[in-house]
Specification:
By secondary structure, the protein is of the alpha/beta class. It is built from 18 helices and five strands. The radius of gyration is 23 Å and the shape is globular. The N and C termini lie far apart (79 Å).
Length: 405
Amino acid sequence: MWVRFPPEVLILMTLIKKNIEIDIVWFKRDLRTIDNKSLEFASKTGSPTLFIYIFEPSIIDSSDCDQRHIRFIQESLIDIKNKLKRYSLDIICINCEALEFFQEVLKTYKIKNVLSYQEIGNNLTYQRDKKIAKFFKSKKINWIQNKTNGVIRGLKSRKNWKKKWMDEMKSKIVATNLNSINKQKIKIPSTIKLYNSKHKFDKNFQPGGETYAWMYIKSFLKSRHIGYTKNISRPNESRVSCSRLSPYITYGNLSSRQVYQFFNKTSKNRDIRNFLSRLQWRCHFMQKFDDEPAMEFKNINRAYDSLRNNHNVNLLSNWKDGSTGIPLVDACMRCLDQTGYLNFRMRAMIVSFAAFNLWQDWKYFSHHLAKKFLDYEPGIHYSQIQMQSAVTGINTVRIYNPVKN
């Protein structure tokens, strides 16, 4: 039997619905269920909570994003969905710009808190977050952003940063009781477009997700770390002897704190100790990028701005395709294209080749490499590319001989 409500009742029902207060957990580069402060907050408030990931067209279409990144994110979300499902919870994948999503939700619900992790991303995501922050402030929405990888936003001096980072790494890991999260279903407004996943697994790439991250971390501690120090620079051996955790840390399948505490108990082992020093090194460069975001576009040392003016499209095209005629360079570029991974020394070598042998400005090839690296992390990417291109003015000039290598 259909019941037709009079207009005044419909208006009243709409107002009641709009007065429902909800919290939103906005997953970004924190795609995990363990050591996730956003989930911990949701488990304690008791408020109806919406879990979302937003696939933003502007980011997907940007010059440093590739389908391999989207696939890794999708696999991570599938893993989270499977974990949440055990507790009658779900994560909704949205297909629109972030600001548009929150504007639409506000037409139906009252948003009290938005929980997320700070994103040490590129200029596109940084400007997006500034707009979101301004919008939330105007609507009196409380945006709680947790620190990521020990990076301190707005840090005025890096003088005591290492101690602060170490304190963060040694702090207590958050264990969330997912069963205590409010299971009330929150209906997404029909005006919001959902993201329809077209996921296709590729065996040549590391699979995304918290489950696979723990498989990699455990196998590295069990046996793969043996020879890490000796093999880290060797292109073949490093594929096994290196931790291969970088994409899992990049997308937050593991927090840096989890990684540090997992290995710190065996830090007397030389290989593990060297690995942990690189974990700290990684976070240091993310902090540096957050302090100096202009390095995404400009030379750290502006005195080098006129150093390389010859943009040769054909030379760079051969370099990208792995058809320079230099065997190791070509092998690395083809391997990177097909697997998304190279060890650090080979990454340095291909940048050195493009910058010195081909004499090309790093700005003409940085986005190509960003798209190819599965573990693309802006904070490390731009500082390292500038360092290997020798435009920082403070680092030793390194030119890698691809024949000797």
